[in-house]
Each structure stands twice: as C-alpha cells, then as structure tokens.
C-alpha cells in the first residue's frame, strides 16, 4: 500500500478501516486523483465500516480513471429508478470480505443538496471543497475542511426551508433535526470564526456571512436561515435545479415512489415497483440442501443483507405453480433484481422447444449454492469450486454447514458477491 507520508500525513493505524475501503483510497492516492468525503464527517467511522453511506466528491475530469479504479478494487455499479436518481451522482456497492458488510458509495461529481426526497439545488463550490480538503490520518482518507462542510450544511438547510420549518419557527423551535444540529455543533467546535468568515464572504457575501456566524454561535432558527438564503450574493435560490412548480411535482412523485420502494423491499417484493438494481443485470441464486429449516434461515439472512440497498425477490423452488414462479424469476432477473431460490426450481429444462412461453426454462441459475455437512469423496477429475479466499471459480459452490452460522453466512456472501 502506498505510504501516506507522501500526502503530508503520518502513516495511520488502519485497524478500524475495512480492507475494501483501504484498497479504494490507496488506489485513489496512487493515481493522484482528487477526492474527499464531503459531508457527515462527524460519523465517518460508521460510513467507512458500512453502517452509513460514503459520500465522496471527486474531480469529474478524472471520471474515466476513476471508473477503472472502482472496477479494479471491486465496487459494483447500481442503477436507481429514474424518479429517485440524483443528477451527477452514481451508486456503487462493494463487499468487505472480512466482515460481510456492504459498503455503499455515493460518488458525487457535483455538489447537489436538498432534502431527503429532492436534491433540488446545486452549489458550484466543488473546486473550493477539493482544494481545501484535509487528510484524516485515522481513516486514511481525505475529508472536507470543517469550515467548508459547515458552510455546506447551513446553506443546504437554508435552501430546503419549507412549511414545516416555518411552523417550527412560529413555535420557537430549531429548524434543523437533532442529527443536523449535532453535526453543526461538532463542526463548530472544529472551526475558527475568522477562517469561516473569510471563506463565507467569498461565497455568500458579507451580509450573509454575518447571519451565518449568528447561526453557528446560536441556534439555526427559521428567521436566520431564511434571511441567509435571501441575502446571499448571489441569493441561494439562484442555484435551483428545477423551477418552483417543477420542484413541487418532482418532490411529490419522489415521496410516493420512495415510500413504495421502501414498502416493496420490506414486504411486497413486487416486480412493479423498481428501486435500486444491478447495472450489470440481475441474478438467480439457488440454495440447495437437505435441511429445509437451515436453508430457509440462510435464505432469509441473505435476503435481509441484500435488501438494505438492492431489490431482492425470494422464491420457493417447489410451489404449486412452478411455471408461474419460473416466469416471475425470469422477469425479475431481466429487470436487474437478485432472485433467491429456496430450493432448486422444479421442472426447469434446458430444451425450450418451440413455445415462446417456455423461454425461461432455458435460463439456468447464475449460481447454485449447495449446503452440506459431511464431506463427500470427490469424483475423479473433479475441479475445486472454491479458492482459498472462498471465491467460486464455477457456478456451483459447496458450503460446509459444520462451521458456525456466521462463518457459513460469510462464505455465502463472498460466493454470491463474486457473481454480481
């Protein structure tokens, strides 16, 4: 791994940083690619270990080199629904093979800000954020200067003020939620007022800077945030991505779609409501094993692991209407979903015949995971299906159930992710 001393910092302790994240940042450093984690740095540790999203701002002029680095390290591109996608933002997922956690990377080419349902503003401050970034020796990665991050946090809240915030102002309550106020206090403790004023005057103007300093030293009230939005030079409303009417329509659609996607992932698991899928296409994963309870438990755990970020469909291999089930699996995989079969699909054929309705019969699963306990003698000429790292070299993988449930789960996670 490249020494971090070349970037003006001491060699850090990386014990708390997953291997996949270390490999990514080391590759970015080696390529001299400008990047930084630009928001939520108060909870950077949680993002690094996969409990939250990693929000990385990058130099868009190096996008081709960045794509090659991500593919080499092992990050997989994901596709969101057109109504939930954000301009100039890409989704990637990677597996930390040591822990089984999925690391979700939000790759930002522009600074798009807004509320949870609509990123309706773009702040043209990318060059400033990247030029003032700092190296976090503990996490071994670049992060935004706390002064810039504080500016972005307050400006981002100012542009999203709405009716609920106005009502909070009437009641004398803060406009920011508890998490945002915690971030503000965390950042304020790490900033110098004179340095903050200097940066703010160059981006917002003197009058808005005075208001911003009042917010930092006091409470983020509706009155101060609204005044900052209007008195900034140029006013923050100039950075709108959509017209006011267009923003209302898009936010309403995204609220409905977002709720539908969340409901679909946790309960319905329907093919009608698309969420986040694999850009490289869907997968059919079959679980085989004599113990139905152990097999079903493992399928449920894998489904819970994946549905954190991806659309998953769980099917049983021997339903009453096996033809309809295979048709459903075919359509789900074709739409980019991951299909988990509890038991091998009954009646699957290689020969499609002449009937179009039987086309899915010729579509074999991408991976068959065979759950077994006692070791079996291998036939002559048999080729090992798993390498030392537990990665499959064919489309059939044997998993030994004699190990602990956590070890079995990790082995399945590694085998499945290799197919993504």
Features:
15 strands; Rossmann fold; 420 residues; 6-stranded mixed β-sheet; alpha/beta; 3 domains; single chain; disordered N terminus
Structure notes:
Helix content is 40%, strand content 16%. The chain is an alpha/beta fold. It folds into three domains: 1-144, Beta Polymerase, domain 2 (2-Layer Sandwich); 145-241, no CATH class; 281-419, Rossmann fold (3-Layer(aba) Sandwich), CATH 3.40.50.300. The strands form four sheets. The chain has a six-stranded mixed β-sheet. It has a five-stranded parallel β-sheet with strand order 12-13-11-14-15, with helices on both faces. Strands 6-7 form a two-stranded antiparallel sheet. A hairpin with a 6-residue loop joins strand 4 (89-95) and strand 5 (102-108).
Which architecture of the largest domain does the CATH hierarchy give at level 2? Answer: 2-Layer Sandwich
Number of helices: 14
Structural class: alpha/beta
Order of helices and strands: HEHEHEEEEEHEEHHHHHHHEEHEHEEEH
At the first level of CATH, what is the class of the largest domain? Alpha Beta
User: How many strand elements?
Assistant: 15
Number of domains: 3
Shape: elongated
Q: What does the main sheet amount to?
A: 6 strands, mixed
Q: What is the percent of helical residues?
A: 40-55%
Strand order of the largest sheet: 1-2-5-4-3-10
Low-confidence blocks of residues: 1-15, 349-357, 381-394
Overall pLDDT, averaged? Answer: 84
Q: What name does CATH use for the topology of the largest domain?
A: Beta Polymerase, domain 2
The N- to C-terminal Cα distance equals: 26 Å
Task: Specify Rg, calculated over alpha carbons.
Answer: 25 Å
Residues in β-strands, percent: 15-25%
